[in-house]
Specification:
- The chain is elongated, with a radius of gyration of 21 Å.
- The protein is mostly helical.
- The protein folds into two domains: about 35 residues; about 55 residues.
- Helix 1 packs across helix 2 and helix 3 runs antiparallel to helix 4.
- About 65% of the residues lie in helices and about 0% in strands.
- The mean pLDDT is about 80.
- The two termini are about 25 Å apart.
Length: about 100
């Protein structure tokens, strides 16, 4: 369905900055953010997940490097299957948290 209707609103500079900041944190356009805010139940911003995401990616990269070295018989490593499962569980919990909050 084409979006051919327009609504103009007036805001203070502070209100505009808040809306821009929130939409940017959610990686949404201002239009999408405002429509989602008005038509959906709620939008929750969870701060700090970027840091967790970065750390989990680093852990995952380290695990992959160790696994590769072990498979090439360059190093001998203890079984990392349990650690991989735990990291995967953390990813799944984070995904569920984000899905529940949006």
């Amino acid at each position: 369905m084409p979006k051919d209707k327009k609504i103009n609103i007036r805001l203070t500079e502070k209100e505009k900055n808040i809306i821009e900041s929130k939409s940017k944190k959610l990686n949404m356009t201002i239009t999408k953010f405002i429509i989602s805010s008005c038509l959906k139940d709620k939008i929750v911003i969870i701060n700090g997940l970027d840091n967790i995401d970065t750390e989990l990616r680093r852990i995952g990269n380290n695990i992959n490097q160790l696994t590769r070295l072990a498979n090439e018989k360059i190093i001998t490593v203890i079984d990392l299957k349990e650690l991989r499962m735990e990291v995967n569980n953390i990813w799944q919990l984070l995904k569920q948290l984000v899905q529940k909050q949006t």
